[in-house]
Amino acid sequence: MGQKVNPHGLRVGVNKDWNSKWYAGKNDFADFLIEDQQIRNYVKKTLYAAGVASVVVERPAADKVRVVILAARPGMVIGRAGDGVEELKKSIVKMTGKTVEISIEEVRRSELDAQLTAESIAQALGCLVCICDTDQVITASGNGRKELQDKYISSALRQVMDGRKIVLASEGSRDYVRIVTEQEAVYAEEVIAPIICVGDSIGAVVLLNQDSKKEFGEPEKKVASCAAGFLGRQME
User: Model-level pTM greater than 0.85?
Assistant: First the structure.
């Protein structure tokens, strides 16, 4: 059995930062880790329409939690006269039983954030969307995203990326490939648009059709191509 390591850990301090910023002894570590995930899930679910890019949890003390929310539409988080933040704060206090401080930061160029880009496409087309780099799925949005999020991409997908051509394939066809190495789900169709930056393939935008009654076509290829082209140009 292979031992898998999330590439995020290798990139911290290079082009990634910690999602949780605290230190805990062995007696508290597991509880804090689970609590962090519960907070993130709650914030993401409650404020999905606000375009939440990430949620950073800090713990200046064992009984204090600071939640930093990076959102494309901070006004939807804050609410009128700040009542949105207060309601969120009350919910997290009830969840954790700790003193809670909430900080809202705006994502000024949401189109450059992979998470928000995937969510926007998923909402518009009603399909599962993931954005990959050359190692893993860095973000996914839509029903079934948990099977793909942060997973290592397959060698077959890497070959498609290296081919630098947009692929539209149906399940069972010659061009159909698995997206991740440990993929169990089978998708009716897929669109793969490589992200090209300065002549190199650095990732891909992938659209996955889970509805056999619906067919992908030129509109989906166009959306994937535009998203991949824009992301590639921003990396130059």
Answer: no
